[in-house]
Amino acid sequence: MTSDPRAVPPAQRTLPAMLQRQAALFGSRGLLRIAGCEWAHGDAAQAAAVHAGALAAAGVAHGDRIAVMCGNRIEFLESFLGAGWLGASMVPVNTASMGPQIEYFLANSEAKLLVIEAGFLERLATADLARTALREIWIVGEAATAWRAPEGVRAVAYPGGGEPVEAAAVQPGDPLAILYTSGTTGPAKGVICPHAQYFWWGVNSAEVLGVGADDVLCTTLPLFHINALNTFAQAALTGAQVVFESRFSASGFWPTMRSSGATVVYLLGAMVPILLAQPEGPGERDHRVRTGLGPGVPSAAGAAFKARTGVSLLEGYGSTETNFAIATAPDSPRGGVMGWLRPGFQARVADEDDVELPPDEAGELLLRADEPFAFASGYFNMPEKTVEAWRNLWFHTGDRVVRDADGAFRFVDRIKDAIRRRGENISSFEVEQVLLSHPGVASCAVYPVRSELAEDEVMAALVARDGVEIDPAELARFCEGRLPYFAVPRYIDVLPDLPRTENGKVQKFKLRERGVGPQTWDGRPARA
Question: What gap in Å lies between CA 459 and CA 470, rounded to an integer?
Fold first, then answer.
């Protein structure tokens, strides 16, 4: 059995084969630490078989979907591995989701079973589960108050496991997960991630970061995102150990890295300025961290971070639909770029007709992979959106970039009408739908503005109905019960009208250019 992941035969690029490989190669070496639980590499396959047995006993079969709404705890990984072992797919649900979003994810994915942490049960009160295919709910932990499942749905405590079952005969192109990513002009899209894509996420990320068997990977990011879920694959393929923390804390970050023994860390763009805003201290150097992944970190912040902490952050590009296709390296000739194209991928900067543009000219980034199933295979239950995104055999990222003469790619802006805040993609469409459901709002537009943390903030411009005076603070509270916290607008402008084209389409670029003004309501002090 080869220790080089790139030499793994195509047919073995599946989750069950990965777990069996790591058990044979790394056995008793430590694999993970999460919420008081520890596994060795040899434990993962057995855990998958046992929890696949529990799922099978609940009626889940090959090709089915299960949804999981859970923090960074062992039950999340048990459900993920069990589903993959059985040939089912997991649907991670963002733990900030409220009832309407949970209902949509369940209905669109046609999930038969929901694994949910007890603290989130009350969110289901505003979800119409009768509109879903849900038949059973597994509750993780103790509920604070009595909770009754709706008619037709069985609710039980999360089972510790079942009779182990043999690994299903899954193929590299079979779906392993459906990861929901923000829609732009419509609802969120469920990205169908095949087994081989997950395999290649682990291979590519480990190569970029130089992960080896002696490394300790530590992430404070949530497991319902591919960034954190991918760290498990990195460890499984290389023999490393991964530590999952429950959440990011600026004041507790370096003590956590020190106590975990971390050598590799994972940060998002806004996290670095937040850490740099903390008082300097010896703890920033008293650790074993040698490198980290920091997509979207401003160049100046990355340089300041290295000067203070000694940690070099690597930049890169990869969406849920693609893979780690573009990245920098420790010896890259310059910074301030997303990086250079990695082996196994092709990239093109194209105009609106998909015609390739010359260097130094901005256009949309198009990507494709050389290896089969290294990218997602489409959007679940959305064939038209799949064809649109993968047209002409290239995946259209919706990001405007420039390819420099030396082959480096630089990010310019988003072509898609999407907002990215606190590591989350936010659909302006979904926020607008909530605003329009308020009885005082006649029309609105939602768009990004830049924040002091070098990321997007959510801004809304709206027009009130005749005779209605809108209180922005009340409107924000209205949104808080209907949107994830990170999607609630920070800035609200009440205008007499919105700028429009001759055919009535809102010109958001004019609103973005207008930005935050003295008349703009800022909700940060109220929610700080």
Answer: 16
How far apart are alpha carbons 111 and 114 in whole angstroms? Answer: 7
- Cβ–Cβ < 8 Å for 322, 367: yes
The residue assigned the tokens 């319902």 is 224
DSSP letters for 419-451: EEETTEEEEHHHHHHHHHTSTTEEEEEEEEEE-
Please give the pLDDT value at position 154: 94
Bridge partner residues of 448 (DSSP): 458
Spatial separation of the C-alpha atoms in residues 239 and 253, rounded to whole Å: 25
Across residues 252-267, what is the average pLDDT?
Answer: 96
**Contact residues for 7 (Cβ-Cβ < 8 A; gap 6+):** none
β-sheet with 154-157: strand ranges across = 154-157, 136-140, 113-117, 65-69, 89-92, 175-181, 189-194
Tokens, residue 510: 């004019």
- Residue whose structure tokens are 């998909």: 354
CB burial class (10 A; 0-12, 13-18, 19+) of residue 384?
exposed
What 3-state DSSP class applies to 308?
helix
Residue in 457, 466, 454, 450 with CA at minimum distance from that of residue 431: 457
Kindly report the backbone phi and psi dihedral angles of residue 428, in degrees, each rounded to the nearest multiple of 5, phi listed first. Answer: -60, -35
Which sequence spans correspond to the domains of the chain? 8-29+40-195, 418-523
CATH number of the domain at 418-523, please?
Answer: 3.30.300.30
pLDDT in tens, 55-98: 999 999 999 999 999 999 999 999 999 999 999 999 999 998 99
Q: Of 174, 204, 153, which Cα lies nearest the Cα of 323?
A: 204
Distance in angstroms (rounded) separating the CA atoms of residues 436 and 430? 10
Count CB atoms within 10 A of the CB of residue 107. Answer: 18
pTM score: 0.84
- The pLDDT value given to residue 526: 40
Could you say which DSSP state residue 283 is in?
G
Cα(5)–Cα(64) distance, rounded to whole angstroms? 29
511's tokens: 């609103």
H or E segment to which residue 271 belongs: helix 271-276
Unique residue bearing structure tokens 């009754």? 148
The lowest-confidence range among 239-243, 268-272, 315-319, 397-401 is 268-272
Name the CATH architecture for the domain at 8-29+40-195: 3-Layer(aba) Sandwich (3.40)
Q: Which tokens is 55 given? A: 């799922």
Structure tokens at 151: 């008619």
Each residue's pLDDT tens digit, 408-431: 999 877 776 668 787 777 877 788
pLDDT at residue number 119: 94
